[in-house]
Amino acid sequence: MRNFRILLIAMAILSTTSVFAKTFTSQFAEFELPNGWECALEGSEWVCQSDNKDRKKEAIIILAAKY
To answer: Following CA atoms 57, 58, 61, 62 in sequence, which dihedral angle do they give, to the nearest 10 degrees?
Structure first.
């Protein structure tokens, strides 16, 4: 019974962290985006920024790479 409770707690913790974390993946990089962030391809660069209009210019991630 004790092992079952520990298993349930571990599954709950692992499932809640994976639900909220969104992963950005390209062929050059992979990282977890903060809550409320989205990435879009603009030309040849990926631009990631907050969905919140008040915070859109606080931080921005621009990924560009060449072979």
So the answer is: 40
Residue with the two structure tokens 């974390």? 21
Tens digit of each residue's pLDDT (9 = 90 or more) over 2-29? 666 665 666 656 554 445 668 888 888 8
Mean pLDDT of the 25-51 span: 84
- Tell me the CA end-to-end span of the chain in Å, nearest whole number: 55
Per residue, the 3-state secondary structure of 23-62, as one string, reads EEECCCCEEEECCCEEEEEECCEEEEEECCCCCCCCCEEE
Beta-bridge partner residues of 5: none
Residue 27: both structure tokens together: 């062929």
Distance CA(36)–CA(22), nearest Å, equals 9
